[in-house]
Write a structure and sequence with these properties.
Blueprint (H helix, E strand, L loop, with lengths): L1 H58 L2 H10 L26 H9 L4 H11 L1
Helix pairs in contact: 3-4
Length: 122
Amino acid sequence: MKKGVCYCLGGVLIFLSILFYLHQKILIYVEAYRLSKTNHVYNELVDKRDYLVYNLNKEISVAKINQWAEKNDFTIVGKEKIIALNLKRKPVHTSTYTLASFFSRILGMPTGSATALAEERE
């Protein structure tokens, strides 16, 4: 009788360790997918910017841009200055992240991964 209990407990422990391993593996794939998606969008934006800068440099000289800016009372912003227009924070819905906080507290998952999983399930 004791051997049966030991085998059962051993099987449960092995099952739980495999389940935990798969859970961590899935989190790694979710983060890799988010990273590749973000990197792809970034590369597209860089390509568009380079295309626009090339066309601007090819067709318009800096002197013409400065003349037009002075005529229309525009001030050209230097590289060290940052302009932010219409910044509004989106309200965070607490009910959306309840599943994420559950995973974070119980399973010890990082919060970013838990929110990614919660957003995908919606």
